[in-house]
Design a protein that fits this description.
The structure is a single chain. The chain has 259 residues and is α+β, with helices and mostly antiparallel strands. It has 5 helices and 17 strands. The protein has 2 domains: 110 residues, Probable inorganic polyphosphate/atp-NAD kinase, domain 1 (Rossmann fold, 3-Layer(aba) Sandwich), CATH 3.40.50.10330; 133 residues, Tumour Suppressor Smad4 (Sandwich), CATH 2.60.200. The chain is 17% helix and 38% strand. The strands form 3 sheets. It has a 6-stranded antiparallel beta sheet with strand order 6-5-16-13-8-9, with no helix packed on it.
Length: 259
């Protein structure tokens, strides 16, 4: 991130909640702001869902994002404080996040694409368990996995759905991805894998007519997929800003030593 100067342009955005909207109104009285399209830094008021939305919107603009929590969890957000914003922005530490790119082919032959900053999930659609073939970098690693689904998570997303499915927490900045099954039935002892960040993951849905599966990139869902390819998008990144000592990496460490 370039050093902040008096010419740095700031935009303040808020989620639709009443508290976030009111906070935006109060902060707009204190600080000079510009429309989001003209800003160098986006100040995002909301929760993690709103942060993911803001990250998607700014992916092509090279804007930095400083989130402040006005939601329920706010794992990717800084603490909310409407005072001293300019000082906090000046001292903030930057973390770059690359998204995953998903290419999904459905049963009708339609190809869909999406990106995910947290994870790509494959989820069964009916009472029938999913039956999946797992291919890593062109080599079949697991010819048949019977399960409720599977998750491929980034380090950012490793503390979200992946952690709830008993997947590993990955340090922010580590060149790794977590591949985690959801309620694996066969093979019962398979608990997933840690992959290099540049791995190309292909998953075929076996018996997809009988066992329909959805592919979900963060919150974007494609139904009745029969094949997906997932890989890190190295050409794009978003820049998140955190207060010193409260970086995303520090939050991930805290998750592992919480008691």
């Amino acid at each position: 991130m370039k050093p902040m100067s008096n010419q740095t342009k700031i935009a303040i955005l808020a989620s639709e909640t009443e508290t976030a909207q009111q906070a935006m109104v109060e902060m707009a009285k204190k600080y000079a702001t510009v429309p989001a399209k003209d800003a160098d830094i986006i100040v995002a008021l909301g929760g993690d869902g709103f942060m993911l939305h803001t990250m998607r919107e700014s992916l092509e603009t090279n804007q930095s994002i400083f989130g402040m929590n006005q939601g329920s969890i706010g794992f990717m957000m800084n603490d909310f404080d409407e005072d001293n914003l300019l000082k906090r922005l000046h001292e903030a530490e930057e973390t770059q996040i690359h998204p995953l790119k998903l290419i999904a082919l459905d049963k009708n032959g339609k190809t869909s694409k999406a990106i995910a900053f947290n994870e790509v999930s494959l989820l069964r659609e009916t009472h029938q368990a999913a039956k999946l073939e797992i291919i890593i970098d062109g080599k079949v690693r697991l010819p048949e996995l019977v399960c409720d689904g599977i998750i491929l998570a980034t380090p950012t997303g490793s503390t979200a759905y992946n952690l709830s499915a008993h997947g590993p927490i990955l340090p922010i900045g580590s060149p790794l991805l977590a591949l985690t099954p959801i309620s694996a039935f066969r093979p019962r002892r398979w608990r997933g894998a840690i992959l290099p960040h540049d791995a190309v993951v292909e998953i075929n849905m076996l018996e997809n007519g009988k066992r329909p599966v959805s592919a979900v990139a963060d919150h974007i869902e494609f139904r009745d997929v029969k094949k997906v390819e997932i890989a890190e998008d190295k050409t794009r990144a978003v820049r998140l800003l955190f207060d010193p000592g409260h970086s995303l990496a520090e939050r991930v460490l805290n998750e592992q030593f919480e008691y």
